[in-house]
Fold:
Amino acid sequence: MNQAVLEKDTNLEKDGGAETKLSIVDCDIHPAFSSQAELAKFLPQRWKQHLADYGPRSANPLVGTLPYPRMTPGNGMRRDAWPPNGGPPASDLAYLQEQLLDLLDIEYGILQPLAAGSSTLNQDLGVAMCAAVNDWQIDKWMDPEPRLKGSISVTQEDVPAALTEIEARINDKRFVQIAIPPRTIEPAGRRRYWPIYEAAEHYDMPIGMHSAAYGQHTNSGAGWLSFYIEEHYAFSHSLQSVLTSMIFEGVFERFPKLKLVVVEGGFAWAAPLAWRLDKQWERMRSEVPQVKRPPSEYLKENVWFTTQPIEEPENNRHLLDTLRWVGTDRLMFSTDYPHWDFDDPRYAFKVPLSPTERAQIFRDNARAVYRLP
Amino acid sequence: MNEMIRSLDSKPALSTVGAIDCDLHPASPATAALMPYLDEYWRETFIMRGVDRMSLAMTASPPRSPINVRSDWKAKSGFAGDTLEAVRAQALDPFGTRLAICNVLNGAMIMHSDDMAAALCGAVNEWLAREWLDKEPRLRGSIIVSAQNADLAVAEIEKRVADNRFVQILILAQNDEPLGRRRYWPIYEAAARNRLPVCIHAGGSNRHAPTATGWPSFFVEAYVAQGSIFESQLLSLVAEGVFHKVPDLKVVCAESGFTWLPSFFWRADKTWRGVRAETPWVTEQPSDIVKRHVRFTLQPVEAPLETDALTRTLEHVDCDDILLFSTDYPHAQFEGLNALPAALGETLARKIMIGNPLATYPRIAADFAKEVAK
Structure:
């Protein structure tokens, strides 16, 4: 690590253009299919035909698009991310290497496929789609590009099938986490999901929960929202519900070594959430005797947050309090490439970080959590 | 009893004497107590259907749970705040409260039948006026309405406005739809017309799960989720342009917590900058709109008070006008008389106790002005 460069980095607040040479782990990259046919290659004929005839059935009321249109084409893509050789953003490995991995000196990138296998209502189709997405990650991304690491896509509502898929992938060390959407049918802490957590703890694989546009309940506790700005905000609420449920159901008491990564929700809310959880637990702990310690302690031991979309206080330095409260040991940098609200590692943190903090957030925490070589 | 004596004797870090308590809960009335205030049709059918023997307390605030009944305030009945004597002895006298706003939480606000809901809301308001406000000059009331039918809500508001002791309109945090949607606008217009703030109080109708991930197992989870619901409601009011359409509207969030405000501001402002073309009528960043139009009752203070969390959070909020003093009596939010955390400091505490409530509630300010004139 070049000390002079690191010192220069600590001046980002004044010198927004400073370039970082610290290699980075990007914990949230969204690979895309070049075309609808691409996934079909990995599906048995029966499901290939089914998808062609019916499509993937989810609670989304629109065919093939999102009910809250984004503000840029391609469901909210960076306008400069469309590959020159055609296809949607992040569907072309060479362009992803050029625009993301090489440019930003990313040593590892964690793939977070958003394909609908986990949220497909037809459970057998979901199983087939998850397996296909996992094969596709190997074939299109991880075989040709060793910097990219995969997420085992599973059907959390069909737990036996999820366990089978985990077993099938566990010996492929390029898969570094088990991916479950936060908007499950029941809150994430309920017992139906525990066998998945048990397997994750057993294999020392983090569970990754990425903000999801699909679910089977209203997208906020206030009801169905009207605008994308509200939906986007509410993604962070589902992640808070996940943490609240897993803590109060006693998941981390039962699986003390379980690692949970919450992805694409930001992190500034984690401090007041911890305070609220602790205060109300103190008053109502008789209701949840399975919770042995203040909830904030589980957040400090079992949970990590990817940083994008990083919150931006009007006064940059207010973020320093948040970093202290949440802990720089809990944060893992992510870009969310190729989405519109991409965080650029060169500019995302507008406050001075010590060399140690910078190394933790941008590289070392992720290396440890994902056991990267 | 010993506990009660201790709480009466303990001297708080900051004195509350002279405060305006903006969130006090007389116990939800049994429906039998409302019968005199219902018309003949509802009296007859309630007897016929046995509704007069129901409590209509809401599961969002189970009336005997440890959070809702502070142990040293618990009466033999298992409830707290169920008599005027108890409220005087526990909530008014020991704190030296100048005025307190009664927020009655009752299932009247969430009955599925529009008409039954409206009839019950009217009865609760009348009961509050006759049984509480008539008897204790330190008490003020909130007009409870069922938000689901705005026309009936507006009719109830218009019926009560002549009584100056009602100082705001009360709705719940969780309704059929987000509160910014147009079906609710007539309530906001009536509120602004009559210079009454709209108080959104924690709790709700359970018409859908309180989280986007389904129904939590435990009450404590649902209580925590209220924070997210308030955030969604504020963003809904902002994004739908309610404050643009009704520029005089004041909203009070009660029992919402407030330490989540900085992260709310930071995320909402940043996203708004990126997607503001979606809601072109929102011409200012959400935090500025919220700071101008929305107030938050003090309790619960959700921050570890032995650290700098509250001090720093208030600096992040960067708006001294935003908090209104509350005890949230009889809910268990603090020990003894320590409703005001020391970290607030005397100047801000005074503003929260008196200045901010006076600026929020024109009817209370008018009462104060009259007293000064005398």
The radius of gyration of chain A is 20 Å.
